[in-house]
Model the fold of this input.
Amino acid sequence: MTDLALPRTARLSAALPQYGVYAAVLVLLAFNAVFTDNFLTGANLRTQLIQVAPVLIVALGMAMVIGTEGVDLSVGSVMALSAAALPLYLGYGMWPAIAMALLTGVVVGAVNGLLVAVVGLQPIVATLALLVGGRGLALVLAEGRLKQIENADLLALGSDDLLGIPVVVVIAGLLSLAVGLLVSRTTYGRQLVAVGGNRAAATLAGLPVRRVLLGTYVLCAVLAALAGVLATARLTASDPSAIGNLMELSAITAVVVGGTPLNGGRIRVLGTVAGALLMQLLRATLISHNLSDSTAQMVQAVIILGAVYLARERRR
Amino acid sequence: MSTTSTLAAPAPQRHEVPVEQSTRGERIAGLLQRHGALAVLGIVVVVASIRFPSFGTVGNAQGVAIQSAFLAIVALGMTFVIIGGGIDLSVGSVFALGGVLAAYGSRWGMLGALLLPLVVCGAIGLVNGLLIARARLAPFIVTLASLLGARGLLLALTDEGAQTYLIDKTSAFAKLGQGTLLGLGYPVWLALLAFAVGGLLLQRTRYGQAVFAVGGSEQAAAMMGLPVARIKIITYAASGLLAGFAGALNAARLSSGVTILGVGMELDAIAAVVIGGTLLVGGAGSVSGTLCGVLLLGVIQNVINQIGTLDSSYQSVVSGAFLIVVVVVQTYLSRSQRLR
Done:
């Protein structure tokens, strides 16, 4: 590594964006263990993990899209669409309903992907259109109403445990593992990073650029749809007007804080997990110390900027 | 400066095409790209006037105008930012913050009600610009952070959103939002004035040409000796200032600093700019197009209200679909020009 030849401060500033997020998570955990009452209890940790699960699932897809040098603003609306589609098909049982909810993700992702990969739109605009239109469509589907979920199977998905761990958390953990393996161990993962790093070179090398982009946007939207299903099961109601609001911001924040550069070519799955955990812990810390929502938002803003500023140093 | 004047009207992506070679088809394509929003606006207005008798009335037109005025002012700032190759996601929060600050400042009279939001919102824009131009952070992320930060500041000011500051309905400041001149509200005139100034600034001044140059190619602009960083900083500061001003005007119209406004407004503003023919990659666009884009969004909303039986949720479905159609058409038009 050329890093060793650099002076100590330069090495530190190179290491900070790489490992800073893990250090920050540890610092926050230690701080809370000492200063926050009832923090290291099973019930509290459980709550934190349950709350972070949907954000994490969305952030995993977002990390892949950002790895292609794109961004997906429509994830929150996809959650709303999947939540709206869910109760419409619950009459056929849980699995068909979940399949239909995920199908909405496939459709939105395919539209996003086609607009970006085939038409050649900028990802921000293409997904912005679906952010605006998607939630409207979800409200139309649900007739603007909140619907109570009565299906016992689906409710169990939101509240049951597997080996003492909430099912939602298990799913989020397994998906993190799957996405990590997908990115680092498969041909598709390699192609994904290559397309994000240098699209022209990837095209010249004969990689199926369009197919990779399309697949990535579909995957991201399906993950968002799944997050919508899980959040609905957790909430015990389908609420398309509120679910997933500003989710795109939380997901992008988790990815960026986790050290994935916005200009593509690199995906850090473990960093994304840590980024999502960090933001969740931060919110919990601020709330448990009676700091208001307004302070929490401003602190979040500063952290995003700090993380991006540090990431910028490395690129030089 | 003769170097900047060559960058004037022609969009950068057409530079390699000398004027005498352009065919009629290309000219039509270029015309459509730049004035498509106006054409669609005309068609929608004519069809709606025939179909709904209540649409073509003076009263309805006045309503559309006043409802569009605030978004128009915000979208004007966004136009400059996007032509300069950036994006400003913070305008919705800054708009809401401007309204709250204006209501808060109205206790010190007209001056306080205008100065407080302008100074604070301008400062937020300035910080955005500094972080983007000097610290070289991505505009997307910087303004995303200030979206959160401005909303946080608003909540801190209003006791977590529980407090709504009121504006005395008889004050001169409230008149600024509620008064009318020749049948149109003051905010409409102010928006028109802002667009006139903005148009002149963009097309006729060195600053405006420099914005095009920076958006077209930042590197080339820097090599020509343009003060790239300063131009970007001014542009983002102006965007914050305009968003704050629009928020203050809106507060004057509502006689209160409503805290829940402006969520998603940045998306409407971006949509209006893009529909108006400004390219999101920067370097080409016009303020007149943005005005058409804003009016088109306003008219669509109005038509959906006229239909009555349609859920208001349809409005965002239509806006979203519309945005896609416009951008796809735009992309193909500019590509057909480039391929020549």
